[in-house]
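Researcher: Next entry in the queue.
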Amino acid sequence: MATQPQDKLLTRIGGLLRQAESTDNEHEAEAFLAAAQRLATRSSVDLAVARAHIAGRERRPAPMQKVVPIGEAGKKGLRTYVQLFVAIASANDVRCDVTRTSTQVYAYGFDTDIATCEALYTSLLVQMVRASDHYIKSGAYRSATVEKIVTETRWGRKVQRRIQAPVAAVTARLNFQMAFADRVGRRLAEVKSDVEAEAVREDGAAGALSSATALALRDKDLELSDFYGRTSEARGTWRGPQESAGYSKAARRAGDRAGRDARLGTSPELPAARGSLKARGA
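Model: Structure for this entry, 282 residues:
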């Protein structure tokens, strides 16, 4: 598959995302989401091969750093938004540093990969927020409980005990979104693995002594690792959303189901392409 110019690639991916967002048919939305991730992932592979063979007359693409805004300071749920972006980035060869306030992500990668992440994040975020809103409005979370530790005074001293308390809406929403982002991340990782394996197999079928795709992907990873090591000023690793609000098994199950609903499948629009999941921005 020939490498497409960046603007043409992004236009095509954006068109698929808009189609997924505009339909009320869940199956159609899933097909468009799958088509978008397939195109993005497959194109990334092709771009990696191209990077390894660019002639001296063309400027070799280099990794870059870009600040991606997530939300205003103090807004609830920013950590789950970051979790979603990081999951998408991981499947598109982009590394991330996160600010302490979770208001921004520093993305490190090649320009086309970062642009793909932004497009997918904008769409997937809307899907996640919409699905969690629907779950909260349904009232399904009210029948669940969450374990809490309370402190009481008995016989002049303080003691702690565990109780089962009703799940607050904010707790249910955060748990739902954490599970949604986790499921989406795992699906995208599977797509990435499948696409790259297929590209390597195609090299072998063509009789290549060594896989140009495998070498190009390795070179790309080494170049990005070197750039990240020289550029990043992060002092630690982002560990994901905090669960201080409590754990809700029911909300996690509901969020995981919502993440699974973006099923990856074949799309008639992209007969030979591989995977792109997406959602809608908030």
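Model: Residues 6-260 form one domain.
Researcher: Noted, moving on.
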